[in-house]
């Protein structure tokens, strides 16, 4: 049941007539809504709407009367809380549902929330042309074939070239007519799409264009039939010449494309994203979900689109892949004019890649020139500036109101008309002239210069920027341990998948006590999940010893917790968050306590009891999975990639909540901000943290500060990073410089 996206805007003749590809977008009055008609049909409790107006009422507006403005070649970071419409906006752009985006504009998109659509990109291009199935493609082939424009040029060139290799004089005629016919079929697909999307006068114009294309297609079919019969010699000459010119144009375009060795570039991108050389010839469909997403990301990066859209591209990458992608996208600034729009919860990644920020808030789009850290700094400065101005004006208003009251009182008592006129004048100023005291250029506001003639409402009210009402996350304190001792202890642990195989882990020693903060980082495949499974008791070591405190309560958030919830939701479509928690706690908590726990994690009201879990967003599922982990107040939290599916506002709130947790935390994450904040306890200036965050600064006066340590798992052993995340990141940057592909 895929929601339908409805996009409207203030259209102009430019939007209707412009058929040239563009790297820029400038659309005013954009409104985007989503509607799910299938849900209302399947749900017997909901009455079916009658008429178009009632059907439209079912749509939920995510963006209203906004201005979408993207400049060519700029890298944008799109930010906003979960559920504000980021992914919907990106999908509407990619599907050309936004009026004003020319149909010939080439848009490449990676979107995490729609795997089926992603895979269909291997089957069909934006024009509806069949690009060949993915079921028979290998990884390298899949990526190389993703550039549909290049494939189209190559196919046409080879087809026309073969038509000149025969002695049949009619073959070039058939070739050029077949090529033109295929182009008209693509035009028909786009014309049908536009006729379905537009309504009113624009819809009438779109239907006229559709009829025109249908007439061209009918004429083209007749010409194809004539190509097998006798044709006038002069027509043969003209058509052959046209075929020759078309072939020459295609060859020139192909030669320009050959400046880039696409196979070499595809190999370098795939290796940069974590693929091994011997995996490049594996069938695409045999890959797991995470590796498919890496492959799809590579297929987007290898293209040269006008607009590149990346929705959470770092979700399935290890830190090496994230650093490589950072450097690759920064390299594109100098070598490509493509406009990039990306969404990511990784604050360091957004800061490094993005030049400007687009903010979705209150159904509007606003823009900031600078990266995420600069935006947050500017926001705080603006909040302070306008807050002080408003406070000063409120004091001024209070003083003037007191003066007016006193003047009226004295004027009436003494019949002093001057006092009454003064009171009336000041009251008029209070009613109509208070507000913003600066003009658009930052200077002092003057009525006769800045808003001459607008005497009744000369100034706007002072609007102090407000922090978005974020999701507050609170974790329960760990239950009492009763007697001291290490929570977990790993001594000389060795693990092998098979007897005789090389060990994945060798000589692992790890001890954790209450309050400890331990972070484990490393590349994909280094054995982090295996280590976590040993700690959680899911697997047993081949050699060595794993000891647990006799009264230990462990809360384990698995990397695939969200997938598990998806499976449960599909198996029981009526299952809600309250229902699954009631089963988990097994009468240990009553309904009120369960609701309180879920509320402390940001899940409240009908979302808990009425919304099935298969309809919850990724961020809501993470909170539900976390509730399943912490409900019994564990002493040790084992968290494996918990930031996936969260927006960075929620990541910040989670980091602050974890910082105050009095138990121990073992964190496995590729998110550098999360490891710095939770494990190292650092207040990084580039990232805003909540006021209740507790880090090393707050522990400075304590006699026994927390034990904080960052490990990197490499070659089966844990290696201490004395300089924390920065040490590991520096080592990866050096490695990445050798892996980057050469840009054309």
UniProtKB/TrEMBL annotation:
CDD domains: ABCF_EF-3. Residues 210-253 form a coiled coil. Its main location: membrane. It is a multi-pass membrane protein. SUPFAM superfamilies: P-loop containing nucleoside triphosphate hydrolases. SMART domains: AAA. GO terms for molecular function: hydrolase activity. Keywords: ATP-binding, Coiled coil, Hydrolase, Nucleotide-binding, Repeat. The keyword Transmembrane does not apply. It is found in: Membrane. Residues 36-58 are annotated as: Disordered. InterPro entries: AAA+_ATPase (IPR003593), ABC_tran_Xtn (IPR032781), ABC_transporter-like_ATP-bd (IPR003439), ABC_transporter-like_CS (IPR017871), ABCF (IPR050611), P-loop_NTPase (IPR027417). Residues 47-387, 488-712 form the ABC transporter domain. It comes from the Eukaryota. This is P-loop containing nucleoside triphosphate hydrolase protein. It comes from Aspergillus cavernicola.
């Amino acid at each position: 049941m895929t929601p339908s996206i409805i996009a409207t805007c203030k259209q102009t003749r430019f939007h209707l007539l412009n058929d040239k590809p563009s790297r820029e977008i400038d659309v005013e009055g954009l409104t985007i809504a989503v509607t799910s008609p299938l849900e209302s049909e399947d749900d017997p409790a909901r009455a079916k709407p009658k008429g178009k107006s009632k059907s439209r009422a079912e749509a939920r507006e995510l963006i209203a009367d906004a201005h979408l403005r993207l400049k060519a070649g700029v890298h944008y970071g799109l930010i906003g809380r979960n559920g504000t419409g980021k992914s919907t906006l990106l999908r509407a752009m990619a599907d050309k549902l936004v009026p004003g985006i020319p149909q010939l504009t080439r848009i490449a998109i990676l979107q995490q929330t729609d795997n089926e659509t992603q895979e269909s990109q291997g089957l069909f291009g934006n024009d509806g042309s069949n690009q060949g199935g993915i079921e028979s493609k290998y990884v390298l082939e899949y990526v190389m074939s993703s550039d549909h424009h290049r494939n189209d040029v190559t196919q046409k060139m080879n087809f026309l070239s073969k038509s000149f290799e025969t002695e049949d004089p009619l073959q070039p005629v058939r070739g050029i007519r077949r090529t033109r016919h295929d182009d008209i079929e693509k035009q028909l697909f786009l014309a049908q799409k536009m006729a379905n999307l537009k309504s009113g006068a624009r819809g009438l114009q779109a239907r006229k264009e559709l009829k025109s294309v249908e007439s061209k297609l009918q004429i083209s079919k007749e010409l194809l039939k004539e190509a097998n019969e006798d044709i006038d010699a002069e027509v043969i000459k003209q058509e052959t010449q046209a075929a020759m010119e078309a072939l020459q144009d295609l060859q020139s375009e192909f030669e320009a494309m050959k400046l880039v060795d696409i196979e070499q570039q595809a190999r370098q991108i795939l290796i940069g994203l974590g693929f091994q050389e011997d995996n490049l010839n594996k069938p695409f469909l045999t890959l797991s979900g995470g590796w498919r997403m890496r492959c799809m990301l590579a297929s987007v990066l290898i293209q040269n689109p006008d607009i590149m859209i990346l929705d959470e591209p770092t979700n399935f990458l290890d830190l090496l892949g994230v650093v490589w992608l950072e450097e690759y996208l920064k390299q594109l600034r100098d070598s490509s004019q493509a406009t990039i729009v990306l969404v990511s919860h990784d604050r360091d990644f957004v800061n490094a890649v993005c030049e400007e920020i687009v903010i979705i808030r209150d159904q509007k789009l606003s823009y900031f020139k600078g990266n995420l850290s600069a935006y947050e700094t500017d926001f705080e400065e603006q909040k302070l500036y306008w807050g002080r101005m408003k406070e000063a004006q409120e004091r001024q208003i209070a003083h003037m109101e007191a003066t007016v009251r006193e003047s009226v009182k004295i004027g009436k008592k003494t019949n002093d008309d001057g006092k009454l006129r003064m009171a009336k004048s000041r009251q008029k100023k209070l009613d109509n002239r208070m507000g913003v005291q600066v003009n658009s250029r930052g200077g002092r506001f003057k009525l006769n210069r800045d808003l001459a003639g607008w005497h009744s409402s000369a100034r706007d009210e002072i609007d102090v920027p407000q922090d978005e009402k974020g999701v507050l996350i609170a974790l329960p304190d760990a239950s009492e341990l009763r007697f001291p001792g290490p929570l977990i202890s790993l001594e000389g642990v060795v693990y092998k998948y098979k007897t005789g195989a090389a060990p994945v882990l060798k000589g692992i020693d790890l001890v954790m006590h209450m309050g400890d903060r331990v972070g484990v980082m490393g590349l994909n495949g280094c054995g982090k999940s295996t280590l976590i499974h040993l700690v959680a008791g899911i697997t047993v070591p081949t050699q060595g010893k794993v000891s647990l405190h006799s009264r230990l309560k462990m809360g384990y958030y698995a990397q695939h917790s969200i997938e598990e919830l998806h499976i449960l939701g599909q198996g029981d479509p009526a299952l809600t968050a309250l229902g699954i928690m009631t089963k988990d706690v097994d009468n240990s908590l009553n309904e009120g306590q369960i609701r309180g726990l879920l509320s402390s994690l940001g899940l409240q009201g009908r979302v808990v009891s009425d919304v099935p879990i298969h309809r919850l967003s990724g961020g809501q599922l993470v909170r539900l999975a976390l509730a399943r982990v912490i409900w019994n107040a564990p002493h040790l939290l084992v968290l494996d990639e918990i930031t996936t599916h969260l927006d960075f506002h929620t990541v910040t709130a989670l980091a602050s909540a974890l910082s105050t947790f009095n138990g121990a935390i073992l964190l496995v994450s590729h998110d550098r901000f999360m490891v710095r904040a939770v494990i190292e306890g650092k207040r990084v200036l580039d990232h805003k943290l909540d006021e209740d965050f507790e880090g090393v600064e707050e522990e400075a006066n304590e006699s026994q500060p927390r034990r904080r340590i960052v490990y990197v798992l490499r070659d089966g052993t844990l290696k201490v990073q004395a300089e924390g995340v920065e040490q590991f990141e520096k080592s990866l940057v050096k490695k990445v410089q050798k892996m980057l592909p050469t840009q054309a």
